[in-house]
C-alpha cells in the first residue's frame, strides 16, 4: 500500500468498493456503521488499500482541496486508471477551462426552459404504465425519463436507449476492470462514429451538444478528438445513470413510508424540499481522490499517492451535522447536503437533476397517488450505488 497506517493511527475495517448485490439500503446501513465506529476515517485493505473518510466536514474539506486531493482517479481501487473522463478527472486549471465550456448547457435558466416539456414527457411515461397496475419503476420510469431528456440534449437517438443502458451498466456497475473498459470502448466507438457523421453532413440548425462540440475551442485552440470523446463518455455516464438511481431510492422511500407519500400527494408544494431531503439521506455517489503529497489530514498520516474514498453517503447521514440524520424529515429546514459533491467538481448538472426529480415526483403522485412495494429490491455497489429493480403495484 502507498501509506502505512496502523490500527493506532486509523481503524482498519473490511470496507469494499465493489461487492455482490445486497438487499436495498444495506449499503447505507453499512456506511452508518463505519461512520459510528471510525471517525473521521478508516483504512481498508481492499486492493490496493485506501482511506475512507466518514465525517461530513472532513469529506467537505477534502473535496475543496484539489491541490492536495487530485481528481485523476474516480475509483479508489484504480490508482492509475487507463482512462480520463473529462472534466471530472481533471484538476484546475485545466478543469476550470472545461467547466466554463460546459457550464452554459446546464444553467438554471436553460433548465427551467425545459420544464413544460419535461412535465409532458413524465406524464406520457407514467400513463403508459398506469393501466398495468404494476411496473419495475427503476427500469420503466426512473431510467427512461432522464435518459430521454439527456439523449435529446445530446442529439442522440432515443431508440438506442436499451443498448446505451447495457454499456452504462458495464462501466459503472461492474467490479471487473476489463468489463468497465469494454463498456467505455463501446461508448467512445459510438461517439467517434456519430461525430464523423456530423462532420460529413453538418446541420447548421442543430443546437444539441454533440453538434456544438464539433466547434468547441479552449484557449482559442480546437478541442482534440481524444478529449472530445473523453468528454462525451463522461456526459453519457452522468446523464444516463445518476438521476435514475437517485429517483429510484426516493420512490423506494415513499413506497415504504405512507405518511411521507400522503403528504407530498396532498401538498405538492413540499416536493422541492422533499427532493433535497431525499438527496441528503440517500446519496448514491461515492467519489475518490489521490493524494498529491505527504500530509497529516485530520489526524490521518496520508502519503503521496495514497488513494481515498470520499463517500457522499457518509456525509449526508452524519448525525453530528444533521439531527436525526438517517431519517427523512420533510419539514427539515437546513438541507444543505453534499450529495452533488463540493469544491470545483460539484455536479455540473445539479439544477437539471433537481428539476427532473421534482417533475417525476409531482407527475407520478398526481396520476398514481397510492402504491406499494412488491418485494424488497436488491442494490449494487461501486462508485455509484443503485437499485437493480424496483417493483411497484397499485390499484387500477
Secondary-structure blueprint:
Blueprint: E1 12-13, E2 22-23, H1 26-37, E3 41-44, E4 50-53, H2 56-63, E5 69-70, H3 94-103, H4 108-112, H5 115-129, E6 134-136, H6 137-142, H7 144-154, H8 161-173, H9 177-200, H10 209-213, E7 217-218, E8 221-222, H11 225-256, H12 258-266, H13 271-281, E9 286-291, E10 295-297, E11 300-302, E12 307-311, H14 312-316, H15 350-367, E13 372-373, E14 378-380, E15 386-387, E16 391-393
Walkthrough of the structure:
The chain is α+β, with helices and mostly antiparallel strands and 396 residues long. It is 46% helix and 12% strand. It contains 15 helices and 16 strands. The strands form five sheets. The protein has a six-stranded mixed beta sheet with strand order 1-3-4-12-9-5. A three-stranded antiparallel beta sheet has the order 2-14-15. The termini are far apart. The model has no long low-confidence stretch (mean pLDDT 93).
Label the CATH architecture: Orthogonal Bundle
Strand proportion: 5-15%
Strand order within the widest sheet?
Answer: 1-3-4-12-9-5
CATH fold-type name = Cytochrome p450
Brief summary:
With 396 residues, this protein is an alpha+beta fold.
